[in-house]
Amino acid sequence: MAIVEMRDIHKSYQLGKTTVEALRGVSLDVEEGEFTVVMGPSGSGKTTLLNIIGCLDQATHGSYKLEGREIGDRDFNELAELRNRKIGFIFQAFNLIPVLNVLENIEFPCLIRNESRASLRARALSIAKDVGLSHVLKHRPDELSGGQRQRVAIARALVTQPQIVLADEPTANLDSVTSEQILDLMEELNRMHQVTFLFSTHDPRVMKRARRVVQLADGYRMDDATHAHALELAASAR
């Protein structure tokens, strides 16, 4: 089943008197259970594409359906509800709340929901165990390593039980060993729980793990890259 269906997506921004065409007629389907990378050089439109998929922005023109529901006509509150219930986010800067401990950071996206705290706590504890954080639940972000912070970000993305997780450069601030561990974790979550992951990245390590690589250039979608070609492109862009 297609979770994401995008047809002829355009997005333009006005910068002073200049119109910037960030996306130019991009079409894309993402099926349940995919582990897919969107790649391209800076300015190619990949972050804009993820922002539209994540309901953080809206297309200027075109059709975007999430689980078969048209998104373009949704108002601010409806988009916020969709983000909270359908989409998980993993950011390269982690974006954890400094004054909250690990367990509280994981639970945070669900606090506005009308569900029992006991149910939320049980789910958060289960996810924390899945991502290897049970021993640091009372630690605050400044007491964690970079890899542990990213694990908290992954757990926080999963606690809402989303249909798709969007990961924007998830390995950018991690060393090589930690990056491989985080990718192992996300692959396992994808394989064991059919969590759908869509990455935006320049990192060849992420591209190597992907089962599909979607290539953007100057706001256009190019032919999907083979793994070998994607790695060559990534190397040349570094």
TrEMBL record:
The UniProt entry, under PROSITE patterns, shows: ABC_TRANSPORTER_1, ABC_TRANSPORTER_2
Instruction: Give GO MF terms, alphabetically.
Output: ATP binding
Keywords on this record? ATP-binding, Nucleotide-binding, Transport
Which CDD domains does the record match to this protein?
ABC_MJ0796_LolCDE_FtsE
- Note one Pfam family from the annotation: ABC_tran
Indicate what this protein is called per its UniProt record.
ABC transporter ATP-binding protein
Organism field: Pyxidicoccus parkwayensis
What InterPro entries is this protein classified in?
Answer: AAA+_ATPase, ABC_transporter-like_ATP-bd, ABC_transporter-like_CS, ABC_transpr_LolD-like, MacB-like_ATP-bd, P-loop_NTPase
Tell me which residues make up the ABC transporter domain. 4-238
SUPFAM superfamilies registered for this protein in UniProt: P-loop containing nucleoside triphosphate hydrolases
What domain of life does the native source organism fall in? Answer: Bacteria
Keyword Transport tagged: yes
